[in-house]
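Board work, copied verbatim: DNA-3-methyladenine glycosylase I
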Amino acid sequence: MEKLSSIYQRAEDRKGGEGNLSLLLTPYHTEAANNQELAQLGDDRFLAHFTKKVFQSGFVWRVVEQKWPDFEEHFFQFDIFKIMMMSEEMLEKKAQDPKIIRNFKKVQTIKANAQMIYDVQVEDNGYESFAEFISAWPEDDIIGLWAYLKKHGQRLGGNTGPYALRALGKDTFLLSRDVESYFREHKLIDGGLTTKSSLNTIQRCFNEWQQESGYSLQTLSRLISYSCGDNSIQVGL
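↓ predict structure ↓
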């Protein structure tokens, strides 16, 4: 397994120096800056971000952003209990409105993912909210959280769930094409990317790099991407 210092140096060389790389590693804007803030978010914001990423998957992200105020209005600012009370007929009617993106199957995920959030709220699990549940999940098993969202939610598999978590402020790496390419080029994985064996190996590597550096999983994920691949992302582009 490669030392992070070598990965960092290669990324620095490819991006034109330490200053450029530091700019590229500037943290993204998120709903919460850390797990403590994340635990204080309303569960409606979790449903909102899950919904936004579901609709952005396979679609033009800019269009979803432009229509997002109408999504918020149409779905009661993603109030969990109001969503839970929506009938199938009401969901279908909402899905026909041109103010949002007319995709009934994706609209159906809003209620399904509200159910997942509600189920956590009412379970005797020691958490008062879904936000507390997510914030308490250990980052050294972030793949376990991905699996939970995929199993209990709808259309939150692949990178959809992780993208939503990152937007909310839950630290996570992403399985981008460059990250996958790195792990394959260095013979760390050789099977399917999302097999249990591959995911465990990837998580173990990120855990070791984090212990070595103290960097967030987001920063490590971006460093890996910048150290390999087509090198298309540059400062000022």
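The chain has a mean pLDDT of 95.
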